[in-house]
Amino acid sequence: MKNSFFKLSILFFVVWFLAGSKGEAATVDWQINQLPNFNNSLLVTLNLDTDGQSLNTFAGSLLFDAHLLELRSASDKNSIIKLWLDQPALKTDKVIFSGITPNGFAGQGKILTLLFNYKNGDLNQALKSIKIGHFQAYLNNDQAEQAAVKIKPAAIVSYLDTQVSKNLIIDTLAPDISDLQLVKDPFSNKFLLIFKATDADSGLAYSAIYISSEILSSDNPSEFNRQVKWTKTNSPYLLESDYSSQQIYLKAVDNQGNVKIIKLSTANRWSWYELVCLLFIIIVSIMIFRRLFSSSF
Fold it and tell me: Rounded to 5 degrees, what are φ and ψ at 45?
C-alpha cells in the first residue's frame, strides 16, 4: 500500500512539473486612466510581462467605438518594441501595430500608450468599447515559435492630471529621422532608401518623400509650404528612377503636427550615361592628342 502511494506521489509530481514547465505564458496587463479634468481624455497603456521568456516579435490591435472616442495620439516612448514594422496607426475603428525587438526582451515593460478624446454619449459605453482585438508574440529562438499570451481585463482608474498625460499632449519636439542608407536591390538593380522615422512623445503620424531637381533648404520648412507633392511612404522606399541628378527630401510628422525635414546629399553621384559620356570624351581626347603628337614628328 505504501509502495503504491509512493509511486502515485512521484507520478503526480512528474505530471505537475511537466505541466508547470509548459505553462509559461506572457501576459498583457493594460489599464485605462480617466482624465476628467483634461478634456475628458482617456489614457490607455498596454504593458507586457513575458513570464521569464525572451520574446522578439509582437503584433496586435486595439478596438474602440469611433462614434464615442477619437484617437488623439499614440506614443511609443520607453516601449519594449525597438523597430516598428507597422507604426501604431488608426484604421477606421481600431489601432494596429507590429514590431520587433532585436535580441529579444524578457521581463516587464510598456508596449505603447494611446490617448483618446471622449466625444459624446455614454462614458461607460465608451469605456466598454475599448478592447484588445488580438495580440501575438513570438519566442526569441531559432524556431520563432508563437508564445502563449494571456490578456487580462482592463483596469479602469480615474485620477486628475499627471505629468505623464501632460507630456503626451504637450509635444513641441520634431520627430527624428535616422539610420539612412541607400542599398542596391539585387533583383531590380534599383536603389532602396532605408530610414527610421520615430517620435518619442506623441508618436509618429506619417513619413513622406519628395524627389525633385529643385534645391530647397531643409532648414527652412517654409520653402515647402507651397505646392510640394509629398508622397507618403514607409521604409524601405524603392527609387523608381535615376536619382543621381535629383534632390531627395524626407519628411516626418508626429501626431501633434511637428515636422522634421532632411535632405539627402546626392552630390557627386554619376549616372551610368554620364559615366559613359565622360569615358567617351576621355577616349576621343586621347586619340586626338596622339594623332596631333604623332603628326608633329
Answer: -120, 125
- Mean pLDDT computed over every residue of the chain: 78
d(CA 231, CA 222): 18
Angle at 12 (CA atoms; ends 6, 13), nearest 5 degrees: 90
In tens, the pLDDT along 239-267 reads 876 666 678 888 888 877 788 888 876 54
128, 6 in Cβ contact below 8 A?
A: no
Give the span between the Cα atoms of 73 and 88, in whole angstroms.
9
Selected from 2.60.120.330, 1.10.10.10, 2.60.40.680, 3.40.50.1820, the CATH number assigned to the domain covering 25-169 reads: 2.60.40.680
Nearest to 167 by CA among 71, 257, 256, 84: 256
Residue 266: count other Cβ atoms within 10 Å of its Cβ.
14
Residue 231 makes CB contacts below 8 A (sequence gap 6+) with 208, 209, 210
What does the chain come to in residues?
Answer: 297
Q: CA 283, CA 279: separation in Å to the nearest integer? A: 6
What's this model's pTM, rounded to 2 decimal places?
0.55
Spatial contact of 34 and 156, defined as CB atoms under 8 Å apart: yes
User: How many angstroms separate the CA atoms of 182 and 174, rounded?
Assistant: 24
Q: Are 25-169 and 176-272 in the same CATH fold?
A: yes
* Of the candidates 273, 275, 223, the residue with the CA atom closest to the CA atom of residue 247: 223
Whether the ω angle into residue 153 lies within 30 degrees of 0, i.e. cis, is no
**Cell output for 143:** 524556431
Q: For residue range 143-163, what is the model confidence (pLDDT) as tens digits?
A: 889 999 999 988 887 664 444
Q: Which three cell numbers stand for residue 16?
A: 505537475
Q: Which CATH class is domain 176-272?
A: mainly beta
Closest CA to 113 of 71, 147, 144, 148: 71
DSSP E strands: which ranges in 14-82?
26-35, 41-49, 55-63, 69-75
